[in-house]
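Fig. S4 source data, part A: sequence.
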Amino acid sequence: MNFDTVFFNDRIKHIEQCVQDTVVKRKIPGIALAAGRNEKLYFQIETGYAENYEGHSRIMSENTLFDLASLTKVVATLPSILLLAEVGEISLIDPIKKYLPEFCSEGSDDRKNITIGNFLTHTSGLPKTKRYYLECSTQQELLNTVMHEPLVQSPGTGVIYTDLGFILLGEIIRVVSGMGLDEFSTKYIFNPLHMEETAFNPQLKLKNQIAATEVFSHSEGSRIGKVHDRNAEVLGGVSGHAGLFASLNDVIKYIQMFVSLNKGILSAASKEISVRCFTHGLTEHRGLGWNHFHTFNRQTGDFWPTTTVGHTGFTGTSIVFDPVTRVWAIVLTNAIHYGRDVENIQSFRVCIHNILASFLFEKT
């Protein structure tokens, strides 16, 4: 790295101060973050508490697993779909009805035109996510409800961020491969990348390594290793939209693979097309799975390039990278453990990404 050493160390101190202030002021229990370029890791920090509730305290470590929440979409579901497309098992322009005929068994004719690509770009016309867990007690009941949700707009006419398409993408992976998303992603993504601290439903073997999420009730206490998303919980903890847990070390391995075009489990063609914007002229800019961030936002702050893409998770997680410079940053927290104060995690993300941008994009 050719950064001026004094300048670099000064910025690292700013990051450490921002992290420490956030933890000490009890805004976020624990934080793990890393940044780099291509396969180069510039720095990695873990601090705070994996759990901090009524006398139960565990310190964060480099091996702590986080509930990735919606990062599941881009760390498990997206690469699984791309791999199936690469080997000719599916195409992104295939209609959903080809794999899930019941999806078109009722409703408007527009449903017949919805493609896998529509699900990946959130342009299917399906509505925002609902609290299905309040009415659905079984996996099949919830899937059937999602399968028959009426459209709220015509496919391709607008962006509505929703979990529904990714829930059904998980089903398509099962139908095509004969394996659940957990089995498929472990065999073809996590194992080849040596992501040994990544799993769905990790509470059975890794409970003492897992960061606690929200305290839903005093009787239940801290939720540890059990997916925070209630819809995913009804789906058995394995879904295309949520359910994956991973350590910072493993997410680093994944993003290093993704930004290095000619290495890893995915082809350069898959990686390049996934970050392309498919929604020009619509309300949001979306790639395949990835969100296109622009300046002055609550995810990447003020200074990241307009080519930046990434994703966030409700529990307090995020992945951000610029496909042009190959600069990347990962922020994993258990912010939800202290409650649903969205302002805390948003303010922290802006602070951290502004500091990161101040030196990561210096010429090297």
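Fig. S4 source data, part B ends here. The mean pLDDT is 93.
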